[in-house]
Design brief:
With 247 residues, the chain is α/β, with parallel strands linked by helices. The chain has 8 helices and 10 strands. Strands 2-1-3-8-7-9-10 form a 7-stranded mixed beta sheet, with helices on both faces. Strands 4-5-6 form a 3-stranded antiparallel beta sheet, with no helix packed on it. α2 runs parallel beside α4. The longest helix has 40 residues. The relative contact order is 0.13.
Amino acid sequence: MDDTLLLLTVAAVALVVGLAAGWAVQSAAVRRRLARERSFFGLPEGSECVLVTHRDSASAQWSIPRHDALALLGLAAVIENCGAHPEVAPHDTGLQGFGARTEFCVGDPTAHRRLAAHLASLLPGVAVHPGDESGAGRGTFAVGGSSYRVEPGAVEYVLLARLTAGEGGRPVFLAAGQRPVTHRAAVRHLVRNRARLARKHGADGQFCLLLKVVNSQAYGPDVVELVADVTKAATTTAESKGHRAAS
């Protein structure tokens, strides 16, 4: 009887120790994963970030277009999980420079002032066609010697970038698309693949990806293909390219 009681006691202690060890290992893994996520997004606990989006031109008051609002909702879960505090700001409101706090800038660069300024400053190798008088060619991307023209509802492109500049070192995330559905697709790609992107580019790395949204008329923002990593071409000015070619 004593031996049986001893065996039961030892088994119970071993079970408790095993559960405690498993909980400790799992908790440590969760903490490490959260630390990597906070580092990648530049969102330490208690920090602030800003989400910059379009105004809805169809509304008399300031409101956010549907797809952009859904894109911001996709980011909200990440921001909350990191313990950060978001501010939503319209693109044409005077904001501070970049680097002091993480920024998520979402929209159409032909109409989004803040996004257009970021492209000019941080991605000088990207050109976005404003369109002619009839609107033809509007939003066509030119990067790395190739052009990417929108075919509404069939083939649409969006640039997804993580860039660092300015004082403070906090990143700027850009989702610059040809149509509203592409902004949402880019944010989905970022959120779903954040761990893989952090591993590939580093927690503090920069990248600029060209994504293609396929048949959004039927599938919405769900079918997304990576066209190319255009980081080098997008962050290099035309003058620098010409200088290298001449030398």
